[in-house]
Structures are given as C-alpha cells and as structure tokens.
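Possible regression after last week's pipeline update?

I re-ran a chain I had predicted before the update to compare outputs. Posting the input and the new output here so someone can diff against the archived version. Not blocking, just want to make sure nothing changed silently.
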Amino acid sequence: METKEAFDLLNKQLPKGVFLNVKNDNKVNTMVIGWATVGRVWGKEIMTVMVRFSRNTYDLIKNADSFTVSVPEYDTIKKEIAFMGTKSGRDFDKYKETGLTLCDAKSVESPIINEAKVHYECKIVYKQSMDPTGIIDYENIEKRFYEGNNDYHMIFYGEILNVYDK
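New output (post-update):
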C-alpha cells in the first residue's frame, strides 16, 4: 500500500474511530481514538496519539515502548468501534465481546487488529503531559473537552516503523 493511500484512509476514518493498541507486561488493551497526527519530527516519520490519564490504556502505554494504530476500511465495523470506544478494558474482555482478533505486529511488541485494513507500527520516542496553561483557544478546546473534569491527555510520539495493509 502506498503511504499516501494509508494516510488518506487514516484521515478519512479518524472522525469515525481507529484502534490504538498497546501491550505492556503481557497485558493488552485497545481503545478507539479519533485524534492523531502524522508528520515529520527529528528527521523521523512520527504519529502522535493522545491518551487521557484516566483511561485503562494509559496504565499500559505509560511504560510501554510501542503502540500500533489499526485503521478499518472506511465506515466499516461500526458496532465494534462503538463498543471499543465506550467500554473499558477494566470491565470487559473487548475482544471476546466484539469478535475482533489480535495478531502480532511485524516490528513492535504491541499487536494489531486483524480485521482492520491498514496498520501503523510505532516505537515510542517521546511522551509529554499536556500542560493546560498552554491551551489558548479556551472556548473551543478547554471548555469543550476538559472543563470540569480536569482529565487531560498524555501525548505520545511514535516513530512509524511500518505501515502496511493486511
């Protein structure tokens, strides 16, 4: 798959949800994300993802060395995305409930979702806690996404080691 084609699918599917997969200490979790960026930082192809401190995935990714992002074909597996995006791995076996299956990634420890079309494998190279004092657009960001909950994000920068369709 061409990199541009993979990037186009990611951008098209992100508002509907893609899968962020993390493995650490033999524990695996998948959450649905609707925000991510791909670009060039430090001379490397980088994907950034944001995970709230309150999420089960944060408990795994904070000490992990990798993550993967599995992108379904556009506008497919909607029920699975809805379940994975609204239920916690603390309370449910998400894979049993949805029928989605994990398989090994090619170059990182974190797995991929077998039923997705495109996979990004990322090695974590940097992480930074979101500083709420840096939010300038209060009405559209702070008020909309954080007001009253104080549940900010950790931003993870992953060097993209592989992008492929399955």
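Follow-up from reviewer: compared with the archived run. The two ends are 9 Å apart (CA to CA). Marking as no regression found.
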